[in-house]
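job 3f2a | input accepted
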Amino acid sequence: MFPVHPRTAKYMKQYGLWEKASANLVLTEPVGYLDMLKLTGNAKKVLTDSGGLQKEACMLGVPCITLRENTEWVETVEAGWNVLVGAEYGEIFKQIREFEGAAVKTDAFGCGDACEKIVKIIPIIQLFSMGRRDDT
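job 3f2a | predicted structure (136 res):
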């Protein structure tokens, strides 16, 4: 599935790539954030040039093939869930066939318990702020 940005769709059609791509892919209009998370979580692999999608695929335990030569999310590569392939056709298809991601999910971005930690800290903050005057 390929949610296509309108500008990308325009150029794909202009250069005759839309018909070729739609023979092998389901091309859709862009989707919202929650729908993209659902699509990503149900994907076998993700191909992207998006920084955010690299991180979300990693957090969801979905192998990500990044069509760039660098990433702002180095942790995703170090964790084994992301591989950088650039734009070289042969390398892209090699990684589509071979890249499986890490054996275990990573907690490089936390383990999802930030809310619980915040709730536990609030009473401590309130305790220390009692009797403190802000009119100094």
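job 3f2a | The beta strands are 2-3, 27-28, 46-48, 64-66, 82-84.
job 3f2a | closed
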